[in-house]
Amino acid sequence: MRIKLNYIYILIASILVFSCDSSSSEEHKKAIHIDSSSKISTHSFSNVDKIHTKHLSLELDVNFKNKTLYGVARHEMDNHGSDTAIFDIKALEIQKVTIGRGDEHETDFIIGKNDELLGQPLFVKIKKDTKFINIYYKTTEETEALDWLDPKLTAGRKFPFMYSQGEAILTRSWIPIQDAPSNRITYSADVKVPKDLLALMSAENPTNLNPEGKYHFEMKKPIPSYLIAIAVGNLRYIKLGKDCGVYSEPELTEKCRYEFVDMPKMIEAAENIYGKYQWGKYDVLLLPYSFPFGGMENPKLTFANPTLLAGDRSLVSVIAHELAHSWSGNLVTNAAWEDFWLNEGFTVYFENRIMEELYGKEVADMLAIIEFQELESEMNDISHSDHPEDTQLKLKLESRNPDDGMTSIAYVKGAFFLKTLEQKVGRELFDKFLKSYFKKFSFKTITTEDFINYLNAELLNPNKIEFNTKEWIYEEGIPDNCIKLSSKRFDVVNKLADRFANGEDIFKTKRKKDKITRDKFNTQEWLTFIRRLPKKMDPAQLKKLDDKLNFKGWGNSEIMTEWYILGIESGYKGIRPQMKRFLYKVGRRKYIAPLYSALIKTPENLLWAKKVFLRANVSYHFVTFSTVYKMLYPKGNGNIHHH
Ligand code: BES
Ligand code: ZN
After folding, report:
1. Which CATH number goes with the domain that contains 468?
2. 325 CA closest ligand 1 atom index
């Protein structure tokens, strides 16, 4: 990586001729093409090893009328004598760049050739002792991180909403920044929004409206750029515990209060396992349905999808997951997206520990088994794809989208590696090790190799323990020594599913207490039941289950997605009205992508899916939109543009 970075730098230095006349603004706007074909595998153009941002202060004006963010990004740099600073930008309009603080002078800049994935490098001419660089900019219609929602896409339907999604490499589309996770920065922001809306960031947050719509934010701990986040909407705050609470639209406040009641206990459990929570407050922000993820671990303020409001607290492991990121990911961060499993594998492992602490081992194991089933199925798909090497924990993502690494390999293979290791060394030693790991690498970014060295030095060597770490990390598939989990409660539903699939009438029972009703099993048991059914069922059989149990209108997004997929594969059309409603409303990619992916398999379903997408796409964030668009129109001929 370093060699490439030097190479690109020399290349640029040799062809870069700065225009001396900084007042010729036309000159500035002309994008000068610089050959940056030798892409660096950090997914960033920035020259952070020469000069890097230490602190960023933002001035932002959030304009809902034209769905534009007007900004100034003031970078305070640590400059090791460089006369060029390189930032990442994507679909941003750069108005001017100045250097200095207080006494600012315009300077020259050049915008490099656009790369569809990475965006453009922004080269700024500076002096060898320059410390302050100020970039004046605005976002455009192509800005990918930001979702601007019309009122009708919110719970209250009266006020517009806007939020950002930075991970993995989208922050550059709303802030000109050195967008590499290896660089940590502190930030502050002054944000102006319409008077009746509240602004929040991944920082110290207000709990009340400001009558002028002006908000100030501080994030005093150094974080990677992908964790800078903003949201603006009609929002209220409720406290759930001493230092934790939930922001949501007022219409959803009480639902949130019920669903997330265990948050304070989760924080306590997490602290007991891996040490003190380092970020002050822990709050959750409930976003509109278009939010493309279940949750996003923005520091101090987890962003959450309203599908978590299942009404029975059955999906709160997502909160445990995002909270766990406050250690794995946010304290100890992957140095590059190739090391993504350091963020997510550790987090899934830790999430499961929190769940075990709160709800017991039986529940935690059921959750882990559900995840393991997903891993096995995805492992099988990836092994037979163009990139079987994607089943390794350490990824190779050079000139590929980091999204390609967002599979259950990083999440679940990563977590099962740690579970297996825990089993081998014993929980006591393992916890001691992980606690020291989080302490040692707090507020640092590390590579997979840093982890391996630390593991050997602190846990395996001193205790003379042999472990196939390298096989887990650098080889494909799941190693043989992977820990095996089982659940008696799952055995019961699996038997029931087998009986049903064999044509037995499982609803006819002698005793009332044996009657199969919705309440007889929990969400994870019903998921297991559906998954156990043969991949192609007789539609009449499926209809029978719907008549008795109403899976198609269950209200729990995990169950509905699983059911719709089985329905699609089995040619069961009875699900269509409910499935259409779901596709119109929900933008969480984990649900939406598998549904479209199942639909494109027959011409008739494909046609139906395209018709649905034509209307549904307005309620998808760019992340989900582009995933689905590529499935429906692999040749890019859909002629539908993201709103
Ligand atoms: N950090 C991820 C979301 C993410 C990953 C966004 C990569 C962009 C790129 C977040 O913590 C996450 O994993 N969310 C999951 C939930 C979790 C319980 C597995 C999700 O959204 O489904
Ligand atoms: Zn995660």
Report:
1. 1.10.390.10
2. 11
To the nearest 10°, report the CA torsion of 625, 627, 629, 631.
-150
Q: How far is the CA of 227 from the centre of ligand 2 (A)?
A: 12
Domain count, the chain: 2
* 29 pLDDT more than 60: no
Expressed as residue numbers, the domain containing 461 is: 329-478
The answer to whether residue 590 sits within a structural domain is: no
- For the CA of 590, the nearest atom of ligand 1: 22
Tell which atom from ligand 1 comes closest to the C-alpha of 329: 1
221 and 370 together in one domain: no
Which CATH number do you get for residue 163? 2.60.40.1730
Nearest Cα neighbor of 91 from 106, 62, 111 is 111
Task: Report the chain's terminal Cα–Cα distance, integer Å.
Answer: 36
What average pLDDT score do residues 186-198 get?
Answer: 98
| Residue 605 maps to a domain | no
Ligand nearest to the CA of 295: 1
Ligand 2 centroid distance, CA of 302 (Å):
11
Is pLDDT above 60 for 13?
no
**DSSP string across 136-160:** EEEE-TT-SSEEEE-GGGSSSSSS-
**Residues 6 or more apart whose Cβ sits within 8 Å of residue 255:** 248, 309, 311
What are the pLDDT digits (tens) for 510-535? 898 899 999 999 999 999 999 999 99
User: Does residue 551 lie in a domain region?
Assistant: no
Interval between CA 307 and ligand 2 midpoint (Å): 16
Residues in the chain, how many?
643
Question: What confidence score (pLDDT) does residue 41 get?
Answer: 52
Q: Where does a domain end: 190, 219, 234?
A: 234
Predicted confidence (pLDDT) per residue in 193-245, tens digit: 999 999 999 999 999 999 999 999 999 999 999 999 999 999 999 999 999 99
pTM above 0.90, yes or no: yes
- Residues 224, 337 within the same domain: no
Ligand 1 pocket by Cβ (under 6 Å): 167-168, 293-297, 318, 321-322, 325, 344, 406, 411, 590
Residue 218 lies in a domain: yes
Alpha carbon of 321 to ligand 2 centroid (Å): 6
- Which active-site residues does the annotation give? 322, 411
Using the 3D structure, point to which of 478, 503, 536 is the last residue of a domain.
478
Helix (H) or strand (E) holding 257: helix 253-259
Residue nearest ligand 1's atom 14 by CA: 295
Quick one: which of 27, 69, 75 has its CA closest to 51?
A: 75
Q: Quickly state the pLDDT bin for 9 (edges 50, 70, 90).
A: very low
